[in-house]
Amino acid sequence: MLRTMKDFEDYAIHATDGVIGHVKDFYFDDEAWVILYFVVETGGWLSSRKVLISPIAISHPDWTDKVLPVSITKEQVKNSPDIDTDKPVSRQHEMRYLGYYDYSYYWGGVGLWGGSAYPGMMLTGYLGSPTEPYVVDPEVQEAYARDEEAQHRDDDTHLRSCQAVMGYHIEATDGDIGHVQGLLVDEETWAIRYMIVNTSNWWFGHQVLIAPPWIKSVSWPGATVSVDLTRQAVQDAPPYDSTAQLNRTQEIAIHEHYGCPGYWATEAKCEAASHPN
């Protein structure tokens, strides 16, 4: 099921021994367009410190009560690497974070999460590619981590705040379309499937969906997303109704309109390739 990013605001994060805090923002990878971390405000028990929580830790969400249970303790969160969530998060910060919780690295695989589409595959017991079980020797793991850090020391950060992209201008190949009003997120993979685009400054009273694969480029300093679509194609696309749940039939209609394959088919092929019989 797809949910808007706004749906997750103020969701409670429950550790195994109590409430950690509430979701205030998300960091997503600007290449894969998948949410990698929740920015959680902890409140009084941790001096309102903001911490990062990975979807890897989430077990079974309680959508009714707006609770995301995680398989970590409050003590673990208290002692986790301190990351300034108001500044860019570097790859080195991520390595320390993932190493602290004993999670595998998500980069380098064919899927959204390493070699899979699902964050749960990144849990302890896997090294490098989460599709290959591995009994981890501590010395080998430490050497592996040092080698990875050396390789990625100069990597540019690709983490972006979801809140920060709200209001970004959307440019078609022949002119302005509108601005980003929201994001639709896959509750199983945490992939951002669509930008919700408000076209009111051009085409009054309409919202349309644009998928990340249709993006041509993004100017982060200029707060502009350029898409490989024409204004006419967008105007003729099926409108988005924010009051109703988007279903697969509607998604197929949108993708067929633009002549683009659906993410569900592409990811099914990747998943099959990473889990051969």
Overall tally of structural domains: 2
- The total count of strands amounts to 13
From the 3D coordinates, which CATH architecture of the largest domain would you assign? Answer: Alpha-Beta Complex
**What's the CATH C level of the largest domain?**
Alpha Beta
Proportion of helical residues: 10-25%
Indicate the mean pLDDT.
Answer: 85
Strand content: 25-35%
* Anisotropy-based shape: elongated
What structural category characterises the helix and strand content?
alpha+beta
> DSSP helix count?
7
Sequence of secondary-structure elements: EEEEEEHHHEHEEEEEEHHH
Task: Determine the CATH superfamily of the largest domain.
Answer: Photosynthetic Reaction Center, subunit H, domain 2
Point out poorly predicted stretches: 125-137
Architecture overview:
- The protein is an alpha+beta fold and 277 residues long.
- The protein folds into two domains: 2-159, Alpha-Beta Complex (Photosynthetic Reaction Center, Chain H, domain 2); 166-267, SH3 type barrels (Roll), CATH 2.30.30.
- It is 23% helix and 26% strand.
- It contains seven helices and 13 strands.
- It has helices at 74-78, 91-101, 138-151, 162-165, 231-236, 248-258, 263-274, and strands spanning 2-4, 12-15, 18-29, 35-41, 50-53, 67-69, 159-161, 169-172, 175-186, 192-198, 207-210, 215-219, 224-227.
- The strands form two sheets. Strands 1, 8, 9, 10, 11, 12 and 13 form a seven-stranded mixed β-sheet that branches. Strands 2, 3, 4, 5, 6 and 7 form a six-stranded mixed β-sheet that branches.
- Strand 4 (35-41) and strand 5 form a beta hairpin.
- The two termini are 28 Å apart.
